[in-house]
Amino acid sequence: MSDKLLNFDKPSLQGSIKIPGDKSVSHRSIMFGAIAEGTTTVEGFLQSDDCLSTIDCFSKLGVDIKVEEDRVEIKSNGISTWKEPDEILYTGNSGTTTRLMLGILAGSNISSVLIGDESIQKRPMKRVTEPLKQMGAKLIGRANGQYTPISVEGSNLQAIHYKMPVASAQVKSAILLAALNAEGETIVEEIETTRDHTEKMLSHFGVNIQVEDRMIRLHGGQKLTGTHVIVPGDISSAAFFLVAGAISPKSRLELTNVGLNKTRTGIIDVLQSMGASLTIDISENTSHELIGALTIETSDLKGTTIGGDLIPRLIDEIPVIALLATQAKGKTIIKNAEELKVKETNRIDAVVNELRKLGANITPTEDGMIIEGPTPLHGGELLTYGDHRIGMMAAIAALITEGSVSIDNHECIAVSYPNFFEHIEKVTKQ
Ligand code: S3P
């Protein structure tokens, strides 16, 4: 864990970046390939720390996985042929790995124990263990199943009709994955629509899954068949460069290979409502996910209000949207975003503390934050809290500060964007 000093002179950003693979889709490609019978090939896979944690867990379960740069081959004969792991399954910093694995393992025929890093050990798991226990899962974890380590004794599961109390794709996915091995039809009702990569990819692997409004239905006992998966670029990674391009002087950035699944494009809505100069070019669709190119230019921005059903469509982008708002004229209100408190760190506190150090006018609220702009930012010593998205927000801020910015533990950025600094260098080098 080391500090990084970022000393830019408000560069103009130019050029094109091919956005690396989507983290959510990459995790699922490995998981579903491991559950499926036959061979699954993945292209565009994100080789980041989080996704490698998922691969590591499945290797310990005896699944044959070969990774060569962004290509992965998974050979499996289905979940019933996995081996009981003789080691603890380590899920690292990854909430998606931890929560979805709980759903998968609950209905398997093996016993296992899951543990994550310091951050994961503090993140709430009851939102997953509670509905899984209602399905008959045998799970034991600290604080009555709230925290890892959690032990799972695979068992026979029953279908459930579950009305989700939180908007969370991880919770929805954990239940749907458990439902594959449950008796009967499972129904999951969402309070808000969340990212639907699980639904789309299950269908791509041959599962009959029905989605109507916010209601998802799936019959247990269905098999997945190995297939080819194309992982689109991660719009959550693109978001950092969208903001960088909009707030840096005389800039124009083209971002290619961006996943444009409509459950993820809240950042585009926000940029448009703030008046950003953004163009969208949708490619021909070769995958089960929509892909396109985004071009962003230096923009005159105005404040906006972000809340309601927009929040799940941009939840991971809020740290960098807060930075964007410091450069917009007027007030930006971010509300209904209390889920930020249970991410890799408490992102309301982290964003407010760190942007204030640079001179931003930002106030925390119970469910979000209020930012008044535009404010010129100055240098400072920023903390990442071990959270990749706070680290990247700080690095993007450094592009427009008067004076240098240092960030601690910059290595945490490899959780989702290992070549982030290479890409910064590419667009700042004239
Ligand atoms: C994810 C869902 C979201 C998101 C996370 C990835 C997923 O979390 O913040 O980065 O892959 O399903 P929640 O389900 O907790 O909202």
Number of strands: 25
Helix content: 25-40%
Low-confidence stretches: none
Assigned CATH class of the largest domain: Alpha Beta
Q: Mean pLDDT, nearest integer?
A: 97
- Examine the secondary-structure arrangement and name the CATH architecture of the largest domain: Alpha-beta prism
General form: globular
Q: What name goes with the CATH superfamily of the largest domain?
A: Enolpyruvate transferase domain
Please give the domain count: 2
The name of the CATH topology of the largest domain is UDP-n-acetylglucosamine1-carboxyvinyl-transferase, Chain
Q: Order of strands across the widest beta sheet?
A: 2-17-19-18
| Share of β-strand residues | 25-35%
Bound molecules: shikimate-3-phosphate
| Beginning-to-end CA distance, first to last residue | 30 Å
Number of helices, where a helix is a run of at least 4 consecutive DSSP H or I residues: 13
Helix/strand/pairing category:
alpha/beta
Binding site for 3-phosphoshikimate: 23-24, 28, 168, 170, 316, 343
Subcellular location: Cytoplasm
EC number: 2.5.1.19
Protein name: 3-phosphoshikimate 1-carboxyvinyltransferase
List keywords for this structure.
430 residues; UDP-n-acetylglucosamine1-carboxyvinyl-transferase, Chain; four-stranded mixed beta sheet; 13 helices; 25 strands; globular; binds shikimate-3-phosphate
Any overview of this molecule?
Belongs to the EPSP synthase family. Phosphoenolpyruvate binds at residues 23, 95, 123, 170, 347, 389. There is one protein chain. It is globular, with a radius of gyration of 21 Å. It contains 13 helices and 25 strands. Helix content is 30%, strand content 28%. The longest helix is centred in the first third of the chain and has 13 residues, at 23-35. The strands form seven sheets. It has a four-stranded mixed beta sheet, covered by helices on one side. The chain folds into two domains: 4-21 and 233-428, Enolpyruvate transferase domain (UDP-n-acetylglucosamine1-carboxyvinyl-transferase, Chain, Alpha-beta prism); 23-230, UDP-n-acetylglucosamine1-carboxyvinyl-transferase, Chain. The chain has helices spanning 23-35, 49-60, 95-106, 126-134, 142-145, 169-179, 197-204, 235-247, 266-273, 318-326, 347-357, 388-398, 420-428; strands at 4-6, 14-18, 37-43, 64-68, 71-77, 89-90, 111-115, 138-141, 147-153, 157-158, 161-163, 182-183, 185-189, 209-212, 215-219, 228-230, 252-259, 277-282, 291-297, 305-306, 330-334, 361-365, 368-373, 378-382, 402-407. The mean pLDDT is 97. Helix 3 (95-106) runs parallel beside helix 6 (169-179) and helix 8 (235-247) packs parallel to helix 10. Strand 18 and strand 19 (291-297) form a beta hairpin. It has 430 residues and is of the alpha/beta class. The chain binds shikimate-3-phosphate (S3P). Residues 24, 95-96, 168-170, 173, 195, 315-316, 339 line the site of shikimate-3-phosphate.
